[in-house]
Design a protein that fits this description.
- With 344 residues, the chain is an alpha/beta fold.
- The protein has 2 domains: 206 residues, FAD/NAD(P)-binding domain (3-Layer(bba) Sandwich), CATH 3.50.50.60; 120 residues, FAD/NAD(P)-binding domain (3-Layer(bba) Sandwich).
- Helices cover 21% and strands 29% of the residues.
- It contains 7 helices and 21 strands.
- Strands 1, 2, 5, 6, 7, 8 and 20 form a 7-stranded mixed beta sheet that branches.
- β14 and β15 form a beta hairpin.
- α1 runs parallel beside α6 and α4 runs parallel beside α5.
- The longest helix is centred in the C-terminal third of the chain and has 19 residues.
Length: 344
């Protein structure tokens, strides 16, 4: 899309600088645009979409209102189309390094490429800089990275007709097991427990697939070793009775989530709780006036790390940000169903 390009100049001036161009950051552009606020987005990844585009672009998502299921990349593309009328600008493939608050309480944000953005408001939308996969303690695991071992699925077709072993007990492990059941020649899911942390509906589907013989479900077991001659060939497991099993496999995909790194954000004077930014749920503001945090990066009592919740947070944030950007103006919010986006 024409929107997905970098803006490079001495100083970019905008109303809101959004750190993170994932789905929540993109939707924040829409909510801000309805209130006639300009947005510039910065993301360390070379494309918009955040984890959806980088880690699982083909993964189906089931909790977006109005869509029984939507492909992750399709959601990103739809969000880009939705915000196109508001003409946001982007600095992609750049990492935020410094934040300076000026005497008038506005901010200068600087990236590792020297891009400088002057903004009245800063919104941290899950742009943590880097995500690292949580790797299980398996001997020689890294030796097989790129040779049968991967920590994310970018192209499901690469597994067509292959023997795939997944491990994990969260949503990603469940969703990809369901998805690959129709693609791989043999799909195996290994989990230490006998219940799952992921969505109950997804867990039920996995149990149903196992009962139908369409996947292999190995519970109360964990992987102890992997073997192969230049490429993965075997996955070794042990159960709670210390009985060892060998699974013939072309691919192993451990899905234990990602470990975020706050990077320079940790030095901005924000209240941090276990690598997440504490916010006020009235408007998702932080303890630093003018800085907000929405999406997976924030934390508060009852927090749910769902895209749906991030969209809600973006809407309330935008209302508060307007008052910060235009303190003398009266906020007059109109429903898009009545006026249409073009009216804004």
């Amino acid at each position: 899309m024409c929107l997905n390009h970098n803006i490079n100049m001495a100083l970019i001036s905008t109303d809101i600088c959004i750190i993170g161009a994932g789905p929540v950051g993109l939707f924040a552009v829409f909510e801000a645009g309805l209130l006639k606020m300009r947005c510039h987005l910065i993301d360390v990844l070379p494309q918009v979409g955040g984890q959806l585009s980088e880690i699982y672009p083909q993964k189906p998502i089931y909790d977006i209102p109005g869509f029984p299921a939507i492909n992750a990349q399709q959601l990103v593309d739809g969000l880009m189309e939705q915000i196109a009328p508001f003409k946001p600008t982007f600095s992609l493939g750049e990492r935020v390094e410094q934040l300076q608050q000026l005497d008038d309480d506005s901010f200068i944000i600087q990236t590792n490429d020297g891009t400088e953005v002057h903004s009245r408001v800063v919104v941290i939308a899950g742009g943590l800089g880097c995500f690292e996969p949580r790797k299980p303690a398996i001997d020689r695991l890294e030796d097989f990275e790129g040779k049968g071992v991967a920590y994310m699925i970018k192209n499901p077709e690469a597994y067509r007709g292959k023997k795939v072993v997944l491990s994990g007990g969260g949503d990603s492990a469940l969703d990809w097991t369901i998805f690959l059941a129709d693609i791989a020649s043999e799909t195996t899911l290994i989990h230490r427990g006998d219940t799952f942390r992921g969505a109950p509906d997804s867990a039920e589907k996995v149990f149903d697939l196992a009962s139908q013989g369409r996947i292999n479900l190995i519970l109360q077991s964990h992987i102890t070793a992997i073997r192969g001659n230049g490429h993965l060939q075997e996955v070794v497991t042990i159960d709670r009775n210390n009985e060892e099993s060998i699974i013939i496999a072309d691919h192993l995909i451990p899905l234990y989530g990602l470990t975020p790194k706050l990077g320079p954000i940790a030095d901005w004077g924000l209240n941090i709780d276990r690598s997440a930014i504490e916010v006020n749920t009235v408007d998702y503001s932080t303890n630093v006036p003018g800085i907000y945090a929405i999406g997976d990066i924030n934390t508060y009592p009852g927090k749910l790390k769902l895209i749906l919740c991030g969209f809600h947070e973006a809407a309330l944030m935008a209302q508060s940000a307007f008052k910060h950007v235009y303190p003398q103006q009266k906020l007059s919010f109109k429903y898009t169903t009545v006026y249409g986006v073009s009216a804004f």
